[in-house]
Every structure is written in structure tokens, then in C-alpha cells.
Amino acid sequence: MATVDAAFPQTSHFIGLNQPVGREVTLTHLAVEGTLPPEVCGSFYRAIPDPHYPPKFADDNVLSGDGMVSRLAFNADGTADFLIRYVRTARWLAEAEKGRARFGRYRNIFTDDEDVQGVDRTVANTTPVWHAGRMLMAKEDGRPYQVDPITLDTIGSYDFDGALKSETMTAHVRIDGHTGELFFYGYEADGPASTKVAYCIVDASGKLVKEQWFDAPYCAMMHDFAITKNYALFPIYPTTCSLDRLKAGGDHWVHEPETDSWLGVMPRYGDVSEIRWFKGPKGVSAYHFMNAFEDEAGVIHFDQCLSNTNAFPFIREASGIHMAPWDVKGALTRWSVDPKGDATSVSESVVGPPGDFPLIPAAMQGRPNPYGWMLTMNPEMQGPPLFGGPVGAMFNTIVRLDFVHGAAEAGHVVDALALPQGWSINEPVHVPSAQEGHLGYIVAIVDEQTGDNQFAHAAWVLDAGALHAGPLAKVAIPTRLRPQVHGWWVPQSQLDKVAR
């Protein structure tokens, strides 16, 4: 196993919380402090980029890290187990064979060692996706890898039993809580810089039943998408790719401030020829979406964490956009369109604060959500946030938004838990409650800086309807952790079915 050493570049992507850990961990019978709600019985999975070897190029970024999957299992005896394993991708195995990095710049095949040309280079490091009894580790530049949900052992690259033709699958799928269907897409579906997008539907049993391809207005980073009860939505923001730039050894992504954004809308069971494109503002960007739904008049409302430029500093630098972090402005923003109307542009309104990692109960996916949660910054914090993640700043506050009774002047924020300086909270997951009217529970990893390059980590369980009250239960995790990208909650009842 590789060890962390000075060979890693001393840039923002490899120091602080972003310092590579490079080891697999098994921790059992961890103590649970406080009272664990009975519904929080299952496993919390996280995807973590963690490079196995120092990169070929010093300007590499945190998102190039090899995929790690972790599992925090809450046991029936009131303890918890914690496991971390590398995803043994083809790329991981090829580099382990030589004991060094062999793949080059972020998402640029033309900078790889010659002897690994044609090897699947995805790192499977973005989202653990659970559906139909399978755990898939996904990253949008390739097909996912299946892992054992109990041991986290890698099973192999997954193509839905040969049915998937797209070379890529997004890390942001959408599962309809009413039908059990999985909706996903893959952009750059037939190769780097392609405008081809594959739109796919998987039935509740896990069978890929439909795959259709269409052309996006340009090759864009399509990190997330959304569904409603009757439609699929494909947002396009002007962070673009050029094949010529890739062949010259350049960056995969460059943001174009003067280029229009777009929202593609099609019937979710329809044909891609039915897509309508609605024009959005120039130069905006969003990575994650809270939800989309139709109102009683059939108008679609789509809520996204929108900003005035790309949030990732390494993409802004590659684009020649020299902007101070405080000049990046954003908010939870609603785009509304009438799929049957005459308008050709989106209408826009602000419905929440700046921030990211929005969350709703899984059962509300594609339906109206009267409430939701997201991460943001404590506006009263004195001093800088904890350093880490691809943006370089970790969130330190979780809020609940009420879209029915929330005060408009407060941006619909009705509850919040703000952490002190030197603390941060990673993307949370939601656990439903068995009590009627109760909003459920939030589970997340919280980081605390305890000294110079020293950190403590714990899993917190919060009452989703009373964030301000602080954690109901905590599990200290006595090992160094890197920030996650995304996570997933799986109830024990579903894991038990797989184990039988």
C-alpha cells in the first residue's frame, strides 16, 4: 500500500484536510455516544478521492484521486463499524503493478503513459449509488464499478449485463421513490469532447430498459440532472471541453463567461426528439440540484445551487478567470419553465441561501418538496473556514428550508446548526422516520481541526426537524479522513436481503 510522503505536490489539493491518507481501514465496535434513534439502523456509504500514488503532474487536483468507498455500519448492539477500501479499478490495478502514477492530467487521455492507452481510466470516486441490491461506485467520466455492500470488495466494472452502450454514466442518478426506477445519463457518451448524451432508464429490478442518445448544445460538464413525475431535465452550463485543447495536453474544462446556459426538457418516458431547449443566463454554473417538480398548472420548477461562475478554483484558473473567492456569488435558485408554453427562456427566482449539497427525502424525488436541507457558511463566523475539498473551503452550517411556511426575507431558512471556527460538515444523508409527521434524521461526517495539520472526525446524527439542538448521537472515527464527495444511506432491511 502506498504511503503519504513529500512526493505529493504541496498545493491546495494535497494539504490540510486534502492531505492524502492512502490506507485502508477496518474499525469495529466503535462506541456510540448519546441516543441512536431506532430508525438509524443501516449503513452510511461515502465516496472519497484519495490518490494511491503522487500524480504525474504537479497541477493535479483533488478530484483525480483514486476512489475510496467507506461504510459506517450502525450495529444492532448499539455500536458501529467503519471500513474504507480502495475501488480496484483498472486504473488502480495498472498503477499498483508499476508502483507509480501512469495516468496524466485530469480527464485527459492524451497525457497518459503510452502503455496504458486504452485502459479504463475512471477512478470511480464520486458517488456510491444503491439500487436493486447493488452498490455502484460512480464517476461521470466512465462506467461505474460494482462493490460488495458488506465487505466493500471490488466486483468489477458494471455495464448492466452488457446493455449499457454509453462509455459514461453520471454519478448523479435519480431514483423515483414511487416506481423504484433509476434514471441516469452519460455525457461525452462516445468519447472526450463529444456532444453526445445517453439518457437511460433502469427498472426497479435493475434492468436497463431504455437508452437513447441526443446532442447537447455544446460539450459541457453535466454533473447533475433532475426528473419530475413526467419530465427529465438536462441543465447545460458553459464549462466546456475542446478536443484540440486535450490533444495539446491542456485542461479538460474551461469556463466561458459569455456563453449561454440551457435547460433541456423532455417527457421522461418519451423520445429524445421531443427535447425542448430553454435559454438560461450567460456564464452561470451549478453542480448540484435540490429537486424539480411540476405545479398544478404543469409548470416545472427546478431548484439548483447556482453561482455566477464555476465554483472550482482550478477550473477558473484554467479559464483565465481571476476572481477572489468572495466574488463568487450564488444562491439556491429556481428556474421555472412551462414545457407546453411559448416561452423559450427560463424565469428565475432566489429560494434559498448560497451553499451546496442540497437534500430532500428520497420519497419526494421529482415531486413537490415542502422542505429540504443544504450546507452553507455561518455568516457570523469570525475567521476563515476549514480548508479542504475541491473548492478549498469546507461548509460549516446546515440549514433547513421551508418552502411552504418559510419567511421569504430569510430565504426560507427556518432552522440551522452552525459549527464553530475550525469545524466543518460533509455532505449529509437523510434517514426517514417511522413517526408520522417527523422529518427524519440527518447523518453526516463532521471534522474538527485539533492542531497543526491534526483533525478529529465523527459521525453525527441530527434530528432533521431540530438541527439547532445539535447531535442526538455521535460516533468518533479514530483515523484520518479525507473530505468525501457524495454519500448514500442504505437501511439494514435492504442489506439483509442481499446477505441472505
Sum up the structure in keywords.
mainly beta, 6% helix, 6-stranded antiparallel sheet, 500 residues, 5-stranded antiparallel sheet
Structural account:
One of its GO terms (biological process) is carotene catabolic process. Fe cation binds at residues 172, 223, 288, 486. Its cofactor is Fe(2+). With 500 residues, the protein is mainly β. It has a domain at 172-369. It is built from four helices and 33 strands. The strands form eight sheets. Strands 2, 28, 29, 30, 31 and 32 form a six-stranded antiparallel beta sheet that branches. It has a five-stranded antiparallel beta sheet with strand order 1-5-4-3-33. A hairpin with a 3-residue loop joins strand 14 (226-227) and strand 15. The two termini are 33 Å apart. The mean pLDDT is 95.
Distance between the termini: 33 Å
Query: Low-confidence stretches at least 5 residues in length (pLDDT < 50)?
Result: none
Mean pLDDT: 95
Beta-strand content bin: 35-45%
Oligomer: single chain
Secondary-structure-based class equals mainly beta
From the spread of the alpha carbons, the general shape counts as: globular
Number of helices: 4
Radius of gyration: 21 Å
Main pleated sheet:
6 strands, antiparallel
Question: What's the count of strands?
Answer: 33
* Helix proportion: under 10%
Keywords: Dioxygenase, Iron, Metal-binding, Oxidoreductase
Enzyme class: oxidoreductase
Organism: Novosphingobium umbonatum
GO molecular function: carotenoid dioxygenase activity; metal ion binding
